[in-house]
Design goal:
CATH architecture: Alpha-Beta Complex
Number of helices: 8
Strand content: 15-25%
CATH topology: Spore Coat Polysaccharide Biosynthesis Protein SpsA, Chain A
CATH class: Alpha Beta
Structural class: alpha/beta
Helix content: 10-25%
Largest sheet: 11 strands, mixed
Strand order of the largest sheet: 10-11-13-9-12-7-2-5-6-1-15
Length: 326
């Protein structure tokens, strides 16, 4: 059984919530960050700075922005600094009164420990027992998408099945991404999907439409993950499970409107920091950026400290302090 802690989080900024509630958002953060060495020898990549914030802050904002009831952060025992970071903000940056706190409600936060680096699919499967009923989202924090809330855009167009965020890439870049095999013409930025190919060789990609780290998934994905065999690198690939379950449920690629930065490498992290700097208005004449494909949401986020309770699962209680994770 996965272990973890629960926080209660809430946001004061008003948000437009989707018609189909996405009650759970999973944020996988157990990866080793080898593309960002040597910094990741001592610092989790999710805690590296993007100008005035850290990578993880953007993911938390996006999850809260769609009205999630529960946020599940998947970490490893080597990355407990992520858990410390979130709880360490409590009470340091805002001054809400006890009366304010007594009225507050918001999503729970659960930390699930992934025992071995067995891939994104395995990270999602670790969350099966603590995912709330109904469709849920998976948000990869490495992929910072500046601009309109990407998950909110997806949820507004979600009509069931599986939905994956998508962007167009150059032909020479297709070997770096999961690429969609399209099954029809797009409508409202939604592309029907007939299949997916994980990192095809250059010249063999079925399209130039690539998957990006945002997913809205039907719960049938858990059954598919349990039946999926390890793929590339001996890891359990989420894209393989989506392809396996596509016989029973529809798959749609959604072309989002924001600008994506791959913060899993040095160049993308630097580009995201410069973009955040320009958006924050800290200096004039910021360098023009080439999108790597946009409101760095700085809404106030509040978090409750955990109180350990006797339970064999992932439950921890709530306490009485506030944080602004900015």
């Amino acid at each position: 059984m996965p272990k973890g802690n629960i926080f209660s989080l809430h946001q004061t900024a008003e948000t437009s919530l989707p018609d189909t509630p996405i009650r759970t958002v999973i944020i996988p953060a157990a990866g080793k960050g080898t593309r960002l060495l040597p910094a990741t020898k001592v610092t989790a990549k999710e805690l590296l700075p993007v100008f005035d914030r850290v990578v993880l802050d953007f993911a938390i904002d996006e999850a809260i922005g769609i009205g999630a009831e529960r946020i599940i952060v998947v970490i490893s025992t080597e990355k407990v600094a992520i858990q410390a970071y979130l709880s360490g903000h409590v009470g340091t940056l805002t001054g809400a009164s006890a009366n304010d706190l007594s009225r507050s409600t918001g999503p729970e936060m659960i930390f699930v420990f992934q025992d071995q680096p067995r891939g994104l699919g395995h990270a999602v499967l670790c969350c099966k027992e603590v995912t709330l009923p109904g469709p849920f989202a998976v948000l990869l924090p490495d992929d910072i998408i500046l601009g309109p809330n990407c998950l909110a855009e997806m949820a507004a167009h979600y009509q069931g099945g599986h939905m994956v965020a998508a962007m167009q890439v150059r032909p020479e870049e297709t070997s770096q991404y999961g690429i969609f095999r399209l099954g029809g013409l797009p409508r409202d930025n939604c592309f029907p999907v007939a299949g997916m190919v994980e990192k095809p060789p250059v010249g063999e990609a079925p399209s130039s439409i690539a998957a990006v780290g945002r997913y809205i998934l039907d719960p049938v994905i858990f059954d598919a993950l349990e039946k999926t065999h390890p793929g590339k690198g001996g890891e359990l690939q989420l894209t393989d499970a989506i392809a396996l379950s596509s016989a029973a449920t529809s798959v749609v690629a959604y072309k989002f409107s924001g600008t994506r930065h791959d913060c899993g490498n040095h160049e993308g992290l630097l580009a995201a920091g410069l973009a955040r700097q320009a958006m924050a208005g800290q200096v004039s004449g910021a360098l023009p950026l080439k999108p790597t494909n946009s409101d760095a949401s700085g809404g106030e986020v509040r978090a409750m400290l955990p109180t350990v309770m006797p339970s064999p699962a992932v439950r921890v209680g709530r306490a009485t302090a506030v944080a602004d994770i900015q």
